[in-house]
Amino acid sequence: MDKNEFSRVLFNYLNKNEIIYAIAKLDIDDVSGAELADIIVCKNTFRKISRFIIEFCKESNFILVQKLYSESTSCQVVLCYYDNHSEKLTSCKINFQSDFKIKGRFYLSAKELLSNRIYIDVKNRWQLNDTYFFIYNSIRNIDKESISQKHFAKLFSCWANNYLFIPEKLKTFFSKESIEIIKQSFKEKEHLYFNANLNYLKKDLQAKVSKRMWDVIGNKISLLRCMINPPGLVVGLLGRDGTGKSTFVDEMARSLPAYFKGITTFKKCPAIFYKGAIFNKNEGYHFSKTHMYSQRNTFQSFLKLTLLFCEFMLGYWIKVFPLKAKSQLVLYDRYFIDVLADPFRYRIRNNKLFIKVIHYLLPKPDLWIILDLPSYILLQRKQELTFEMSEKLRFEYLRLQHMLSNCIVINNNDEIKKTVDKASAFIFNHMLQKIAV
Prior knowledge:
The protein is of the alpha/beta class. The protein has helices at 3-16, 43-47, 49-60, 110-114, 130-144, 149-162, 166-170, 176-187, 191-196, 198-208, 213-228, 245-255, 298-325, 338-341, 352-361, 375-381, 387-400, 416-436; strands spanning 21-23, 35-41, 63-71, 74-83, 88-97, 100-102, 105-108, 117-120, 125-128, 233-238, 263-267, 329-333, 367-372, 407-411. Strand 11 (263-267), helix 13 and strand 12 (329-333) form a beta-alpha-beta unit.
């Protein structure tokens, strides 16, 4: 299935279920982009959009990964499907909205937009007529202060079909001077002239259409919803040195950006104030040979564990939680619980009770992934440990699975793509369950 086939299945579903909608996006026929469409629906349908999308995914074997609210009347859903042409999982973003608002400014009601739609028989779909297609996308591009040559050409096509009616509708949003700029741009097909005046047009648009208090409050409520139930995800990665964690994190960061609004990785800790060599007295500490150093005494171990507790607690609320609230994926290459499996790596005298108490007090990743390898393969990559030490550490890491919720063990003996696919499926399944609740 490619994007064209996906869109055909989606619009067939909307038509079959008699959902009143209208496409309002410029890139609907651009098969190269991740975004499929802006789809206008009535207020009642918008309130039930989660149910419709979940039902659509079950019926068509798609995966719902994300549902993000940008406005009180607008949300973006991110779906995943297998593309036979590229032979990989592919993301597709669909923006559903009722009333057309941007940052607290109300432009057009869903009722007005849906009253001005036309049916495209060849493609079996409904979309806004030329006038409202032009108005909607002009406002979108002016607000972003950016319009490509391709988008301008599509707007020009709408203008050419309805240039006698569009200026009258523009009076609701722009002054006479701005309307003249728009008319001049499309009459002469001057993309550069229009682009050069976007800043002026945006200021005029915002002066003409002021923010409404209720819409601003609605956006604040949407922001509060993200704080209470953050749409992002935190994943903790564990495993012995040599299991390929760094390569795995790099591949995950390349494979999953389309499903989140960003990906941030942390190595061992958030680095608020803790530095790896803080207790090492400038002795030339080698991070690649962590097991060659002697353990600290009980008091020094207590101090370091306390410092790590403060580091992870502050790091979560100062760095990690804001990213999660913004729908980012946060990947931790190791986390505090790593100390329990391999205290010698941190030169800490083993105190399992104290370590477990700290673990239960700390905010934790949503998901845990433990990368595993047979010891004889691992020792081909890392000769730091003996076979007996490697087996002991392997047992300790695998034992963590029983005390960590939402945890999976993945054998990284396969090619990295298969490992990433298994981890991605684990993540997508969790995101689906999170949305369906």
